[in-house]
Write a structure and sequence with these properties.
Pfam families: HTH_20. The chain is of the alpha+beta class. The chain has 2 domains: 85 residues, Orthogonal Bundle (Arc Repressor Mutant, subunit A), CATH 1.10.10.10; 122 residues, no CATH class. The strands form 2 sheets. A 4-stranded antiparallel sheet has the order 4-5-7-6. α2 crosses α4. The longest helix is centred in the middle third of the chain and has 18 residues. The protein is globular and about 55 Å long.
Length: 227
């Protein structure tokens, strides 16, 4: 087994503890960095226990750390900076036996880009999205459907932001191609969902998240509780 596979297995093994798994999910879904106090409260554990598990997640490469003063003050008397956590950008995937789907997807994306088939890809993504929407259970909430697909949605004012890009590695290399496909797929999904009427998706990228944001009319917004 390669060192990368060993690292992936070790990282995923860290999530075997239910408290640690809950802390990771809370930090990963948060739109901003999370401090120890907030993480402990969300997980229902003591601050010291949360700090222990959070640092184990950092050691495994699942979380990243930064330091800042939560008071916003600086200089003498401002206090020590707090340790803040956010989801690490790296990915950990394990396949037994080993597979190389990422290599195939990059090759296919390169062929589509070189052939100028962006429009055909977007049309296919929209059709696939519509099919997924129609196949969802009746009355499926668009927010919950997006969450189930790994987008980690959250409300920011009147916009539904997507904290995670499910195609992150591929989008880094083929940004225009993959983001166009992603937008078309979400548009198709909304068209296919019974509760998708009144929702609009558009390009509005987050620095560390998805390239698409959504807005809903009054009725659509009422049907989706705050996250």
């Amino acid at each position: 087994m390669s060192s990368s596979e060993d690292s992936a297995l070790e990282a995923l093994g860290v999530l075997g503890d239910p408290v640690r798994r809950g802390l990771y999910r809370h930090v990963a879904r948060a739109p901003e960095e999370v401090g120890r106090d907030a993480a402990a409260e969300a997980a229902g554990v003591s601050r010291s226990l949360a700090a222990f598990h959070l640092d184990k997640l950092v050691e495994a490469g699942l979380l990243e750390v930064s330091f800042r003063r939560l008071s916003g003050r600086s200089g003498p008397g401002a206090g020590r900076p707090s340790k803040m956590y956010r989801r690490a950008e790296g990915e950990h995937t394990v396949s037994v036996p080993p597979r190389s789907y990422d290599s195939a997807s990059r090759l296919l994306a390169e062929v589509v880009e070189r052939a100028g088939l962006d429009g055909e890809l977007q049309a296919a993504a929209r059709t696939a999205g519509e099919s997924e929407g129609r196949a969802s259970e009746g009355g499926a909430d668009p927010v919950e459907v997006l969450r189930a697909r790994g987008y980690e949605p959250f409300w920011e004012g009147g916009k539904l932001r997507l904290n995670n890009c499910p195609f992150h590695a591929l989008a880094d290399q083929f940004t225009a191609l993959v983001c166009g496909m992603n937008l078309a797929g979400i548009e198709g999904l909304l068209d296919g969902l019974p509760d998708g009427e009144g929702w609009k998706a558009s390009m509005d990228p987050l620095p560390r998240g998805c390239c698409v944001a959504l807005e809903a009319s009054g009725e659509g917004r009422k049907s989706s509780p705050d996250l």
